Amino acid sequence: MKRLRNHLIGIDQGSILMFSEFENEGRMWSGSGPRLRRRKQTFKEAFRLPPAVHVAISMWDTDGDTNQRADITAEKITETGFDLVFRTWGDSRVARVRADWMAMGELPDPDDWDLY
Prior knowledge:
- It is a single chain.
- The protein is mainly beta.
- 3% of the residues lie in helices and 49% in strands.
- The protein has one helix at 27-30; strands at residues 9-20, 35-42, 52-62, 71-75, 81-88, 94-106.
- A hairpin with a 5-residue loop joins strand 4 and strand 5 (81-88).
- It is elongated and about 55 Å long.
């Protein structure tokens, strides 16, 4: 659990089209086996420490004739951003994915001193 000082809580959020590959027969749509897409996200303002980041699929378009496999996560979380990562595997055919994210954490206090 992260403890936050209530007057310094910051929340940032966004939505990103991770990929759209059915038009050009991209690997997520026409490939098989392990596949991933990584998208760097930058916060509008830096947090004091790495925040808690929640990610979710807000739209996905898949082939109904294959298994629907998906894993979405936030990786490499820092005070200034994170990597949004979508994975699929096997015979799954994913045409496109949009992901939403929300970061919540402590903001820097203007009264904090940075001595070193």
